[in-house]
Design brief:
The protein is mostly helical. It contains seven helices and no strands. Helix 1 packs antiparallel against helix 2 and helix 6 crosses helix 7.
């Protein structure tokens, strides 16, 4: 979407409607609670509308919105002052025993790795969009995801022994 400085409310709404499920799943995974994750998304989009003029148009509007959602979810988590227990839901909202093992392994990851995993696999963002959303370089995203994959592989292989 070619967006200019300021973010048009109708474009923000269109992204919200198209990706609401992804935003909620990522936020829920970050805060460890579906309801609080949904609240974080609502708050982030409220901020997006109120502060839309702060969008400079230097990157994609969607990446800017992802940054707001991720930051709001992190703020919610800090406010609760508890360790996250990621809620890993499939697209249809179901969970399995395998999901529970994966959730435990993901919960053990450092925060940056955890959030990068959520943005890559829950939101299906490419590396450039993840970099924009997290405010890091694309190479940092690649290194972070590689380290996360290595950590998950090691943890899950140890669990199978």
């Amino acid at each position: 979407m070619g967006v200019t400085r300021g973010g048009d409310p109708s474009e923000i709404e269109a992204i919200y409607r198209a990706r609401i499920g992804d935003f909620r799943r990522v936020a829920a995974a970050i805060v460890g609670d579906v309801e609080r994750g949904s609240d974080a998304v609502q708050e982030a989009f409220g901020k997006a509308l109120r502060k839309r003029r702060s969008f400079r148009g230097e990157g994609s509007l969607e990446a800017w919105l992802w940054r707001l959602v991720v930051n709001q979810a992190r703020d919610e988590l800090r406010a609760a002052r508890r360790a996250p227990v990621p809620v890993l839901l499939s697209a249809n909202g179901s969970t399995t025993d395998e999901d529970a093992r994966l959730a435990a392994a993901v919960a053990a990851l450092p925060e940056r790795q955890r959030v990068a995993i959520f943005l890559r696999y829950y939101a299906d963002l490419d590396y450039a969009s993840i970099a924009e959303a997290l405010g890091v370089k694309r190479g940092t995203v690649a290194a972070t995801l590689s380290a996360a994959h290595d950590n998950l592989r090691k943890t899950l292989q140890e669990a199978l022994r």
